[in-house]
């Protein structure tokens, strides 16, 4: 498993393959720079991480799509993802 660049949970089966994280609903397009807008997500990682801390998803539109039990299934991050 691979860590989601947004939430850090090991919820992705591969890296940079446009897979959507069930924990935060970030689509992993390979963008790792915090201040570069990710095309599919239409946000920066910094903004998505702030949104995750504030309301539990990478963006407000994805709050209802997040799998609430996913945090229990996947290993929690040991440190913030940079």
How would you describe this protein?
By secondary structure, this protein is mostly helical. The protein has one domain (1-82). Helix content is 18%, strand content 5%. The protein has helices at 45-55, 70-73; strands spanning 19-20, 27-28. A two-stranded antiparallel sheet has the order 1-2. β1 and β2 (27-28) form a beta hairpin. The protein is globular. The two termini are 18 Å apart.
Features:
Cysteine-rich CPCC domain-containing protein, 82 residues, 2 strands, two-stranded antiparallel ribbon, mainly alpha, 2 helices
Topology of this structure?
Layout lengths: L18 E2 L6 E2 L16 H11 L14 H4 L9
Antiparallel strand pairs: 1-2
Question: What can be said about this structure in brief?
Answer:
By secondary structure, the protein is mainly alpha-helical. Helix content is 18%, strand content 5%.
Q: SSE order, as H and E? A: EEHH
Q: Structural class from helices and strands?
A: mainly alpha
Gap between N and C termini: 18 Å
Overall average pLDDT: 93
Count every helix, treating DSSP H or I runs of 4 or more residues as helices: 2
Number of strands: 2
Q: Outline, from the CA principal axes?
A: globular
- Largest sheet: number of strands, sense, barrel closure: 2 strands, antiparallel
**Beta fraction:** under 5%
Kindly state the percentage of residues in helix: 10-25%
Strand order of the largest sheet: 1-2
Number of domains: 1
- What Rg do the Cα atoms give? 11 Å
Q: What are the low-pLDDT stretches, counting only 5+ consecutive residues below 50?
A: none
Protein name: Cysteine-rich CPCC domain-containing protein
Organism: Halopseudomonas pachastrellae
Domain Cysteine-rich CPCC: 3-70
């Amino acid at each position: 498993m691979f860590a989601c660049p947004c939430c850090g949970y090991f919820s992705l089966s591969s890296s940079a393959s446009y897979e959507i994280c069930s924990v935060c609903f970030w689509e992993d397009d390979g963008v790792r720079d915090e201040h570069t807008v990710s095309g599919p997500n239409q946000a920066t990682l910094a903004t998505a991480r702030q949104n995750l801390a504030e309301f539990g998803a990478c963006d407000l539109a994805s709050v209802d799509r997040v799998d609430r039990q996913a945090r229990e299934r996947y290993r929690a991050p040991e440190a913030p993802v940079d």
